[in-house]
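Exercise: predict the structure of this protein bound to NDP.
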Amino acid sequence: MAHYRAELTGVFGDPVDDNPTIVLEEAGYRALGLNYRYLTIRVLPEDLQSAIDAVRVMHFRGINLTMPHKIKVIPMLDELSQAAGIIGAVNTVINDNGRLIGENTDGKGFVRSLKREGVELSGKEVMILGAGGAARAIAVESALAGAQKITIVNRTESSGLELAQLVRSQTTACAEYVPWTEKLTVPESTDILINATPIGFTPDQGSRPDIDYDTIRDDMIVSDVVFDPVETEFLKEASGRGARIFTGIGMLVQQGAMNFTFWTGREAPVDVMYDALEKELSGNK
Ligand code: NDP
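Solution:
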């Protein structure tokens, strides 16, 4: 019998036009010969409930949420994963036969991107620049993956203090907030330093977080959430001091790969997805 209906997935956001997730998910669907589509959909804040209703009535397999929907979507769902509940934000919805389950794969994507290259979080001291959505997900998942200490550095004190308190209350890791002073010193004991702010994102690619780059040591791991440009000024400075660097592409692909598996039930072709995104972002289309 003919089967013309595609399975639907996608992302809701506003703004959303420059969200590149379609590139990696569609590359994965093609590689496995799946009749799935990934749609990049502009949904205004006041229309989120209607859009979530559409997920149900149009039998979407799942949907990603990006700015400004990650928190507001929570009461519209039927269930939350443990991590999404702790983080207080959802970036992925899975439609399980009409039950909408909220997940957060941002932080897990970060942990998996390190693990894939042989780096474990267990016992590590982690310093995170930023206390927004990405920082929250990375802090919580790093702590759940066994990090010993999480230090949150943020411009705004209230959200930094709140995130440190969240990690302390919900995980076994130690956590503290450090104010972001000029030319911030990275303590020698830091194992992993992460930029979880948007500083350095195109078209702002010339800027970098205000830290004392000479306090980055060659035994540190330095990672960025910014994925465009792939190699940010922050990562270039770190790499110039001998640190091992991880780009934002790894995190993006790994969370996309987890979502792929949630939606299709198939193992994601991670290498295909990674290559497709890297090619796209390096402008070599
Ligand atoms: P939020 O708006 O939730 O948080 C932004 C954070 O960055 C806040 O802590 C904010 O501090 C801080 N910040 C912003 N500008 C500055 C500045 N000029 N100086 C100092 N601090 C600053 O954003 P998200 O956490 O959702 O996203 C952050 C970045 O991560 C985005 O660029 C996003 O694209 C990227 N991202 C990448 C992913 C990946 O897979 N690679 C996944 C998810 C996000 P304050 O509290 O003081 O305002």
